Amino acid sequence: MRKFALFFLSLIVMPISHAADIAKVSDAWVRLPPPGAQVAAAYLTLESKQALSLSNVTSPAAEAVEIHTMSMHGGMMEMRQLPALELEAGKPVKLEPGGLHLMLINLKKPLKEGDKVQFVLNFKQGKGVAGAVGVQATVKAAKAHAH
Q: For 20, 47, 116, 126, which has the most beta carbons within 10 A of its beta carbon?
């Protein structure tokens, strides 16, 4: 029975660890939202050894997580949801304030500075599933994260 349990556990862990080999996540953090806010923005850097697509993101901290971009349009900053985020082999993609980011929608509880937020990033390669990568991001005030 124990061998079966270990085998089953290895099947669960294997796809996640395999994806971690092809998608590296660094500098993950969540901006501390204002009191009472139902949304928060998360930032990180993604890098892959091969072309991948970040197809969706989930988090137990929010009802939904969307991939967003911000750009100037007609003199106004405009935020737009992306269906996926394409990664080129060997080229880091930085999600940062004022640009690409993850938007946590309908937070399940208020976030406090220092909280840890879990994410699962789901990647596709071509038309197939490449795997998932688990990420933990710390909630920080924007000024506390400045380099």
A: 47
Rounded (5°) CA angle 86-92-95: 75
Question: Do 58 and 65 contact (CB within 8 A), yes or no?
Answer: yes
Closest by CA position to 57, among listed 40, 35, 70, 34: 40
H/E run at residue 12: helix 2-22
> Would strands 76-82 and 62-73 be described as parallel, antiparallel, or unpaired?
antiparallel
- The pair of structure tokens assigned to 52 is 């991948």
Closest to 23 measured CA to CA, from 97, 112, 93: 93
- Give the separation between CA 15 and CA 21, rounded to whole angstroms: 10
CATH architecture under which domain 2-145 falls: Sandwich (2.60)
Distance of alpha carbon 8 from alpha carbon 127, whole angstroms: 26
- How far apart (Å, rounded) are the C-alpha atoms in residues 9 and 137? 25
Q: Mind listing the pLDDT tens digit for each residue in 81-131?
A: 999 999 999 999 999 999 999 999 999 999 999 999 999 999 998 888 889
Domain boundaries, the chain: 2-145
Q: What whole-number distance in Å separates Cα of residue 3 and Cα of residue 74? A: 62
